[in-house]
Amino acid sequence: MTCIFCHIIEHRLPAEILYEDKEITVFKDVNPAAPVHLLIVPKKHIDSLNALKEKDADLVKKMVLVAKMMAEKQGIQNGYRLMINNGREAGQVVYHLHMHLLGGWGK
């Protein structure tokens, strides 16, 4: 199975990566729905929220903290939205768990 986010994380596909550590990669969404639209993606491939295991709890917590940090770096800390789509009916298009950071409407 080929996962576009796994390819981005592995630097096999181009993306505007804004942050990376051993567990998380953050890059700009190619089809932004807001002036600031970043994707916070765990390097570990997890299909969706439904595929999370108890052992992944710290990873999800880290995703939220990285989103907060990125909001500060983007200057949108006073107003932003975090969103995770789970499943096709919720609008999930790429089946690799990811969080959308949206904001910048007031900039």
Briefly say what this structure is.
By secondary structure, the chain is an alpha+beta fold. The protein has helices spanning 4-9, 57-73, and strands spanning 17-20, 24-28, 36-42, 80-83, 99-103. Helix content is 21%, strand content 23%.
Account of the protein in words:
The protein is built from 2 helices and 5 strands; from the N terminus they run αβββαββ. Helix content is 21%, strand content 23%. The protein has one domain (4-103): HIT-like (HIT family, subunit A, 2-Layer Sandwich). The termini are far apart. The chain has 107 residues and is an alpha+beta fold. It has helices at residues 4-9, 57-73; strands at residues 17-20, 24-28, 36-42, 80-83, 99-103. The protein has a 5-stranded antiparallel beta sheet, with helices on one face.
Strand order of the largest sheet: 1-2-3-5-4
Which H/E pattern describes the elements?
HEEEHEE
Structural class: alpha+beta
CATH H-level name... which superfamily? Answer: HIT-like
The CATH class? Alpha Beta
Main sheet: strands, sense, barrel: 5 strands, antiparallel
What percent of residues adopt helix (DSSP H or I)? 10-25%
Number of strands: 5
Do you know the CATH architecture?
A: 2-Layer Sandwich
Low-confidence parts = none
Mean pLDDT: 96
Count of all domains: 1
- Output the number of helix runs: 2
- How far apart, in Å, are the first and last alpha carbons? 40 Å
Q: Provide the gyration radius in Å.
A: 13 Å
Query: DSSP strand (E) fraction?
Result: 15-25%
CATH topology: HIT family, subunit A
Shape: globular
